[in-house]
Design a protein that fits this description.
This protein is mostly helical. Helices cover 62% and strands 0% of the residues.
């Protein structure tokens, strides 16, 4: 019902496995890298619950969806084995993909659907820390995109330190150039602590704590500066930051 109509000039076709549950198709679709088809099927199943007008049936379908997605995650991320392309199951969290699959879905409905999916996955992650720890952060970033990834970092305990330099560049570019999120940039930068110097590359990228400090200086944000300084450890980093500020203005920084 929310899928792109066939008359759309940008028609996209997605295979819906209406007779099969998510856990029955997830391993095969992930192995094929069929991120869009898997996301479309998750959306189809979720909407079957969210669009239900009967109160009792709504809760029954919602519980059924939660169990279905939970089981799919368990099958993909087994204790001693992570299946090929398992990260594809998170593709539905990519806002651009969600809009492409369901272009006429209203924003509140998209947000409700996304919250439902994230809630299920978060519950699974909490109960399966060991299997989830083997997830490829780089592949996850590629599947969900930087906007969703930075939101998932604190909720899922993702390790940005595991990202290769190019992916770190992608994150900082998104935060500074697209989202204009200074505090998000600070949070990602301090996740690379400890470092020996403000000038040390973060994750092998062109970014450093000194570059983040320059960003704060340009914004003239006292709250941003206090937040940044409060997380600098060891104390030597704090002294380097204070010295850098004095170079800008001896009295006020």
């Amino acid at each position: 019902r929310h899928a792109a109509p066939e008359v759309s000039p940008h028609k996209a076709l997605f295979t819906i496995h209406a007779s099969q549950r998510i856990w029955e198709i997830a391993i095969d679709l992930c192995a094929k890298g069929a991120v869009d088809d898997l996301a479309a099927n998750i959306i189809y199943r979720a909407l079957a619950a969210l669009d239900c007008t009967d109160w009792n049936e709504y809760w029954r379908r919602k519980a059924d969806f939660r169990q279905d997605l939970f089981t799919a995650c368990s099958n993909l991320f087994e204790v001693h084995h992570v299946h090929e392309g398992a990260e594809c199951i998170f593709g539905v969290l990519n806002e651009d993909r969600l809009r492409a699959i369901s272009p006429v879905m209203k924003k509140p409905k998209r947000q409700t659907l996304r919250n439902l999916v994230v809630d299920v996955i978060e519950e699974w992650v909490i109960l399966h820390q060991q299997p989830f720890s083997r997830i490829s952060a780089s592949k996850l970033l590629d599947v969900v995109g930087p906007a969703a990834f930075v939101k998932l970092v604190p909720r899922f305990g993702l390790r940005v330190q595991a990202l290769p330099p190019d992916d770190v560049e992608v994150l900082f570019h998104y935060l500074t150039e697209e989202a204009n999120d200074m505090f998000g940039s600070i949070r990602i930068s301090i996740s690379f602590l400890p470092v020996d110097s403000l000038l040390d590359p973060l994750g092998g990228s062109s970014w450093s704590l000194r570059r983040i400090l320059k960003l704060i200086e340009r914004r003239r944000s006292e709250h941003g500066l206090r937040f940044f300084l409060s997380h600098l450890q060891p104390v030597e980093l704090m002294m380097q930051a204070l010295q850098a500020l004095r170079e800008r203005d001896l009295e006020t920084g």
